[in-house]
């Protein structure tokens, strides 16, 4: 026995551990078995919304690109980052660093939506119940493809999760016209199954699907359908719980915008972030450098409208006062925009002596991080005023000179006359009986001001082929000599993507 | 061991003594070493007879002998002595230590070997070398001491900064190049205190390291801690104190010069000769304000001893360093205990225990590169950048922030008000049993467990306007990492001799499991700045909490054959089969074989009695080792969660993260080593030469060749695609120049060269990456290109200042440049500089590194002089990119910038923002030779120590980094900026040679005291 007790001891010590080496991750999600309930489908749809809150999408790279490309926002001349200069100066290269990051992000949103749609088939529940949820994913997919097709034209189109990586890696582009058809189908599905209202405007309801349908039709010149769709929404204003916010400024008040009746769809930032996930950058990029007005040390003065945007905008327009910040506070002293770079009073040498965008700063509340990063601002993707303007624009193309079309614009203007509760006389109602061309110009100008800095302007320029006018010497930003109408209404597909999949060739013309 | 057993032992001892005292002539005496210290356990045997004994605790022996007997006294590590007995009754013997290093026993994986029998490439560093001068950490002892081993701090002289070891170059691109650390058999342990270490062995080639299989490709460092010796109880006290200073400072503009500089910028940028700059109210030398004289105190107490049945070593250590940057310090307390008991003739049990607590209070350094705040909380780079004409606080008592360049808080405010505290507890226990099953067959089993518990707390009070996040009332976070490591190893060793053949066999099984648990939480907008990070609930805005768990298992079988024929021909073969949970489904198991041969030429008859050549051995080895570069769960298809808010609420969200990758496997290094060991003149001169060639294949590279439209969050997938090659040559030369009674001089020299080359990349395409601080907004600073070395600098090739008029041939400027702007090589011939004009502009890999130690001793004095150096590596001085950029304070060199009247200069005209271009203008030669240590020691003569009742009393004065010879213009040629991951990315193989914002290297003066009794 004496001997054996040592043997037992040795065995006891040495017997630890024998494993099949299979990994069983905890805290990570394996795709197999994830989809069990309708709640899981919603969680997958939420992934699509989540990706929309990443900086690569509307918070920073893509929104910056769209803004700088337009005639309403200039790049501070001291900013030298090539990817920004290329957008602002209309000399895009195919390896542009912004495109290189926001394009993949767009497809991640689409991938998440596709996953939700495919995953719903694994859940046994009533089709109507499931459709109500995946209709959101159809909307999200259409919403992003609509951005992509307007920017790039023909693009790779996927409507299922990728299982065969090899096949998906060698696919060809889908022509823009087909992409539009797919977008329309998705939006129709979404409109059919989404409810009339949702608990929050961050989740699309019927109105969002319908609003985007109207805009998509407008973009592709299907004016009758566009008008019909817009009219349909307007006729269901109360069903959809829509309306114009009484005070324009409340639309950009972080404490009020989400509760407003006006947005159809918005990206909802709540002042929290996980790194660049859900970190909201607009206040930083548009805010005045060194400005103490909002408590966080000012923004970065990167995306700054040309001075002409300010000087050409009628000062009686309440929307101007709210859209632009013409004063800053340096060291406790309020100074006007001509002093923004005056270092002796606390200005910033590399800033910009021009009024800055106020929509993301003035009522955005405090920022969780320095320089205005991570405020609670909501980014409104579409609001009811735009639906009215779409209806007006589309109707004018079908039947010019109607009072109905005038009326839609007058509603938007009437709201603009409500200056923080005080009625004013500007902007006046439209002159009746305008010609088709004059009305078209008017409605585009109305969109430019009403929807200023809401990421819409470049699409209007591209859609209406306004480049030769707005980028001429008489444009707001002066002559943009690089502008080439044969090339510049589309952006180049990311060059490295064409290397990774040569079947995506040819590149867009001129790049 | 209980009292009863103790009594039994004592009885047995007594019985033995009386046994020998039974008849005949009784001889007694004491065996001492050269220092007159008794040696216990010396074997005393009568040759050609059966009787014998061993010395007791005090070196005494008694033995029955008769006249004419030949007595042999032998003890490991000492030269045996034989004495013929006449008829004396007392015989005192002194044994000399065996100075022949070839008989040294060297620890190898799962065993030990005589140094002369080693066939692989192994460097050994003993306690004397480790303790030649005070070290901040044990890893430092390897620097310059072992050929082919490069040691670098993650962050200059930062108190508590981790240290990287690299053996024979970068054997990977994306995976770590850090060697496996094995402490007393515990794989993956943390380093013990330097003064507790008996020896460190560096296993460099595959023959030595392949026994560690998939974790051996970066080499292995085997650490053996001190054990007690049977004999007298020994108590040792080590105490040292040092003062430290920055070794260098930068010459920066003062407030007046800065105002002139900014005025010139205003003139240059507006074209208005009357443009002005409004000078601030102060004149602050931020370096003066933030640097201080640092200090280190290190106190160690240990005691050891044992009987013939049990031995022990125990120590306690207290280390405290006050860094040279204000508010940075590190404190650590460490305990170590090793106990070993011979339970029966056949069974030995042992227990090792290690525990430590380290507390590091850091200042933010090595810009984390948050683009958001312009590298804004990095006090080192900020003290160079920040405007000298501002004070710490403005007229309103608020901390100043920069009014030019990026919005940043002043560095003094950050250093004094920001809190970054890291507390690390490490506990390790290892129980082992060794059992002699039959003669020569031994079984050893070990069971070990270690835990690391680390808490990191950060706090930014509301008074830090920028870094605290928009003045929103401060922000704080607390995170925790708990890592456990369970190890069970069991192996059999068998030794036999058949004729002239000696055979050693080893076979074993090992199982190891590591787990990691993390969580972190944070909050901001506190009602008070007084909570630090200990009241997260008091923040009205919570920051997203996170947590994660991972575990990894590895189970292995391993074996080794050592064959020795006639002490001339040696053969070693090892194999290890590793199965690891983190390997992908199709590649769960891997086999790593190695083989080596050795020829002891000097034992051949024709050299046996050669007067000059006392040792000559040729060695050759080939083998395969691996690198476990795959993280847990990395090969699995996964969804990931995403932080998402809807309607103001945070909601659960998942997105497709990556597709499954069932073929992902380890990286493999195919290593060849050819070596020669030569000893001349009775080994007064020993020389080792080693040549190696390492082909690392199946390197895990991020494959970005998959289109990004597939919709996965992970855009790059890992593939076993790349291949790199390292070739090198190492020389170790040790000479005993003079050995007299009173004076001796010896020199240890080592030199190594390594050349690495990228052999293949994905589709042969260049890989560009950026390792500059995030706020630089630079796309690329480095390149990987087939046929070139790893991690070359990539940028514009600076050609001096454009003087106006026609461009010199082959050069161009950026569009819109005027006279005084920089000129670059026009690579693409487009006459304008664009990204197409970037090229390789520097190579951070040194051509060679060396270390030379001279040891002198004269009577009771000894002197150690240790130089260490590297030649031929470039440094990219990112600090200067900022200091010549215009939007911050500047180097005084800008006073010589180009102006229409000062055209003969290499410094372009000053402008508001140079765009932080990456160009060869900032690439410098980083070669250096440095007097790493000089120390003078004095041992009090024995007659005094005896009076004091001490065994030994020693004083040492020393200085570290006293002299550095270099042409590098920056602070220090041992640079350690690793890109915008900060210190976390320090294991990177691909972003070496950058200098930016790391903690300064220090110059130290030490006084130490060592007492033994």
UniProtKB/TrEMBL annotation, chain A:
Keywords: Cell outer membrane, Membrane, Signal. GO terms for cellular component: cell outer membrane. Residues 68-218 form the SusD-like N-terminal domain. Pfam families: SusD-like_3 (PF14322), SusD_RagB (PF07980). Its main location: membrane. It is found in: Cell outer membrane. InterPro entries: SusD-like_N (IPR033985), SusD_RagB_dom (IPR012944), TPR-like_helical_dom_sf (IPR011990). The keyword RNA-binding does not apply. Residues 348-511 form the RagB/SusD domain. Belongs to the SusD family. This is RagB/SusD family nutrient uptake outer membrane protein. It comes from Flavobacterium muglaense.
From TrEMBL, chain B:
This is TonB-dependent receptor. The keyword GTP-binding does not apply. Residues 115-220 form the TonB-dependent receptor plug domain. It is found in: Cell outer membrane. The keyword Cytoplasm does not apply. One of its GO terms (biological process) is iron ion transport. PROSITE patterns: TONB_DEPENDENT_REC_3 (PS52016). InterPro entries: Beta-barrel_TonB, Beta-barrel_TonB_sf, CarboxyPept-like_regulatory, Plug_dom, Plug_dom_sf, TonB-dep_OMP_SusC/RagA, TonB-dep_OMP_SusC/RagA_CS, TonB-dep_rcpt-like. It is a multi-pass membrane protein. Belongs to the TonB-dependent receptor family. GO terms for cellular component: cell outer membrane. Residues 391-962 form the TonB-dependent receptor-like beta-barrel domain. Signal peptide: none annotated. It comes from Flavobacterium muglaense. Keywords: Cell outer membrane, Ion transport, Iron, Iron transport, Membrane, Receptor, TonB box, Transmembrane, Transmembrane beta strand, Transport.
